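Schema walk-through. Below, the input block comes first and the output block second. Nothing else is stored per chain. Lengths vary across the set, and this one has 464 residues.
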Amino acid sequence: MTPQRTSSPDTQMAAWQSALSTESGPRYLQIAEFIERSIATGSLRPGDRLPAQRQLAAWLGVDLTTITRGLNEARRRRLVDARGALGTFIAAPEAELRQRVDLSMNIPPPPAGIDMEALLREGMAQVLMRSNVDLLMTYHVGGGSPADCEAGAEWLNPMLGRVAHSRVAMCPGGQAALAAMILAFTEPGDAILSEPLTYPGLLHAAPQLGRRVEAVATDADGMCPDALDEACLAHRARFIYLNPTLNNPTTVTMPEARRRAIIAVAARHGARIVEDDPYWLFARHAPPPIARLAPTATCYIGTLSKCLSPGLRTAFVALPDEAARARFITALRSFSLMTAPIANALITQWIGDGNAVRLFEEVRTEARERQRIAAQTLGVSAGDGIHLWYELPRYWAPGELAAVASAEGLAVAPSTAFKVGEHSAAAIRISLGTTTNRGQLQAALRKLSALLADDQSARHEVLI
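--- output ---
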């Protein structure tokens, strides 16, 4: 839709009228999202001038305030530039101005339907109104206050059902929770069992703490029970790390029957399961978490960094019992005395007033839209989470592809960053949340798609 080039007024009006739906949220946000979609499809291009605001209001049958809010939201997303009396124009894509677009870091996408600045301002105002400032600025007991742990139990309820707050701890992120569990429930030299492709945070933490990670074979459903049984015997392991829902990096979700089989093997060996479960809420049809099936044998980590915002640096942990919680808190205090009370209070406030759920629902909506864009651009199936696992063509090695992409201004995570031992996989993880808007994501994915299709090996064949 480019009025100044080819479109007739009737065509322009029909295109804009298609922007509004009775089922897609506030109209001003629909206007901003229509502009974003049009940029992504090429209907609107940098430098195109938008119709006058009064003209748009007449076409869409809305008041001028709605149009102004929609264009302000588009400007906040850096989609348009306002040039005074000259009008409003489509902005040059931000991706072209940056040296690097990061598709390697797993973070939730910015929610299009939430004004984060306003949400933070409102949340902090409520915290300051309800709290004693002196208490917010002093030392607190590690693991969170009873109110914080009650909020944690409420947040974990969709996954685990009702959990006593005396079993819940609040800690500064999932990585800190994992490190504390390693310290609390293993000894130096112990083996930690995981899948051959696993969370890099485990691979960083274990050797620093004097433990080793050993791979357990997998199939299409995740960790194999027979292989786990053999590994428990071979390594005398009592600590099993799993990320069974929308696995990082492979996106595999372990079915319930396999989860129960893993629980049975762990029980035979007296092994503790650590379930790192940051993506369960994203999945449309997730099986019950392992911690719900076997609460007395499982330590559960539910971080907010992957579903709300990494800036919150908060995770909730559900331990099997109060004794295990005490051991965990003691280990946590060895390197993190407490989480920031102000952050705790904000999270507790948001969970209590429903804003945490509202924020997550907007993040999930945005994540699914980005999965749809990735599926269309890369020719893969759309998933539910915030990343996808892309198996490379035979002519690309993971490290080589990552290096070439980096030279082109794209960062992706090669499979080598996730491997345990000598395991090999020719794939990359593509994270969908780091770009500021969908248009920037689509531009980056198009560039990546062109690289993936480029068989550079063919250029080096010797012709005789």
